[in-house]
UniProtKB/TrEMBL annotation, chain A:
It is a multi-pass membrane protein. InterPro entries: Cyt_c_oxidase_su4_prok (IPR005171). Gene3D superfamilies: Rhodopsin 7-helix transmembrane proteins. Keywords: Cell membrane, Membrane, Transmembrane, Transmembrane helix. It comes from Wandonia haliotis. The keyword DNA-binding does not apply. This is Cytochrome C oxidase subunit IV. It holds the Pfam family COX4_pro. It is found in: Cell membrane. The chain crosses the membrane at residues 27-48, 60-80, 92-110.
TrEMBL record, chain B:
This is Cytochrome c oxidase subunit 3. InterPro entries: Cyt_c/ubiquinol_Oxase_su3, Cyt_c_oxidase-like_su3, Cyt_c_oxidase_su3-like_sf, Cyt_c_oxidase_su3_a-hlx. Coiled coil: none annotated. It comes from Wandonia haliotis. The lineage of its organism: Bacteria, Pseudomonadati, Bacteroidota, Flavobacteriia, Flavobacteriales. It is found in: Cell membrane. Its main location: membrane.
Length: 121, 343
């Protein structure tokens, strides 16, 4: 059943060929970026040895985490078009999730380390 | 996209409530809500993994050592295969976003082309994952050994190859004098894993018969790398040469089951703590299930595109909503790749 009282928001997203060209350019840029970051990750992963004691590994580990967040940011903002949505929608999706996950990550990893220390002693 | 939220919308034509939340369509908003709940599920799984991983610091397997094989080419290619899988998923995400872009221009041909490419990419990823699982489950040729002092060690070297097994004591299936020539490597590793290798080198077969082993090329143990300390050996000790061969054979001929473990299942695995394989199966399995359902959804939407359903409707929002789900699957893999394989 068609409802004529519902505004078709999807029509707002329509664009012409000229705009499409710019959007595709952006998509290709993100493609190259995601591929390059993944390649860097694989090379680092293959050549830097894991070692909880070494500062090299510590740096690489954090580089992995930052590169992951970078990739995730581009996927969500460009591929999932969240950047083109209203700011309030963007915030309502991201902010509560990020606050909750930061808390969960902090508490679980702290507990994990505590369990490890108990087993060691 | 362009001009999406810039102009005012007459509230008399909005949702029944007269005000449209976030000025977005109902379907897209509900897809986002679903994706948030799914992201919480995956977040919970990965955080649970992080908890166990931190608790087992030092004993946890290292990604580039476990995943270092390619189909047909063997070992020595750390992370290359999983990098290819990641690349595949990124590319199929790109073709999806190109389908969405084509939809915004009402380019039916473009949508058809890019949707088809996305579906093919999805099938390739699923196939890659099947190979990855099979490789993980079967494991390496020599497995992991528990030495007499209780320590656990990775075994590096070459497995033996066999001519035949000659039955010297009858079982429920074979008679004395039978010569077995099929599936020898598998039969032998089964005997090793269940502790059915005698001190003279003969083995007990599946049916209970005892057979003399005719070796083509003997096993060669290069190195035992201690992964869990025992009474005598400490973590990361390396034992080489004849000592390594002697300790390995001691374990193989001990008569005890599970002294040598090959591959992985839910109870034990050769790579590390049993939780490692459990999380591997659950997280990559749950993600793989998402890929699978994503492919099915994409196929259904693809039929809609072919039949012109969305073209008649005047917009391709359905492709956009399926696209959101598909990108989310890619997004999850980005995190699985980092936290399971790299760190």
């Amino acid at each position: 059943m068609e409802r004529d009282d519902v505004y078709e928001y999807s029509l707002d997203t329509h664009h012409d060929e000229a705009q499409g060209k710019l959007i595709r350019k952006k998509i290709y840029f993100v493609t190259i970026l995601l591929t390059a970051v993944t390649a860097v990750e694989v090379v680092l992963g293959a050549f830097i040895k894991q070692d909880p004691e070494s500062w090299v590994w510590f740096t690489v580990k954090w580089a992995f985490i930052l590169m992951t967040i970078l990739k995730a940011w581009f996927i969500v903002m460009v591929f999932m078009h969240l950047k083109d949505e209203r700011k309030v929608l963007r915030n309502i999706i991201l902010v509560p999730y990020l606050i909750f996950m930061s808390y969960l990550i902090f508490i679980a990893l702290t507990e994990g380390n505590a369990v490890h220390d108990t087993w060691m002693n | 996209m362009a001009g999406h939220t810039t102009h005012e919308i007459d509230t008399t034509v909005s949702w029944k409530g007269k005000v449209s939340p976030f000025r977005t369509s109902y379907g897209k908003l509900m897809m986002w809500f679903f994706l948030i709940s799914d992201a919480l599920t995956f977040g919970g799984l990965l955080v649970g993994y992080g908890f166990i991983r931190h608790a087992y610091t030092g004993k946890w397997p290292i990604g580039e050592e476990v995943f270092n094989s390619l189909p047909f080419l063997g070992h020595g290619y750390p992370l290359v295969y999983v990098a290819l899988m990641t690349f595949l998923l990124i590319i199929s995400s790109v073709t999806m976003v190109l389908a969405v872009e084509a939809g915004h221009r009402m380019d039916r041909k473009g949508v058809t082309k890019w949707m088809l490419a996305t579906i093919i990419g999805g099938f390739f990823f699923l196939g890659s994952q099947a190979w990855e699982w099979s490789h993980f489950i079967h494991g390496s040729q020599l497995g992991r050994v528990q030495l007499n002092d209780g320590s656990l060690a990775y075994v590096h070297g070459h497995a033996a190859t066999f001519e035949s097994f000659e039955v010297i004591k009858a079982g429920s299936h074979h008679h004395v004098g039978d010569v077995v020539k099929d599936d020898l490597a598998h039969e032998y590793s089964h005997a090793v894993a269940t502790g059915k290798v005698m001190s003279d080198g003969s083995i007990v077969l599946h049916d209970g018969s005892v057979a003399k082993v005719n070796v083509k090329e003997a096993a060669h143990i290069d190195e035992l790398l201690i992964r869990e300390a025992g009474a005598e050996y400490a973590l990361n000790d390396k034992i080489t040469g004849e000592e390594a061969e002697r300790l390995y054979m001691e374990a193989v001929t001990s008569g005890e089951a599970n002294r040598v473990v090959y591959g992985a299942n839910m109870q034990q695995n050769e790579y590390g703590p049993k939780q490692y394989a459990q999380f591997f199966f659950f997280i990559t399995g749950f993600h793989g299930f998402h890929v699978f359902s994503g492919v099915i959804i994409n196929i259904l939407i693809f039929f809609g595109v072919l039949r012109g359903t969305y073209h008649r409707r005047g917009h391709y929002e359905m492709v956009e909503k399926a696209g959101l789900y598909w990108h989310f699957v890619d997004l999850v893999w980005v995190f699985v790749f980092t936290f399971f394989y790299l760190i």
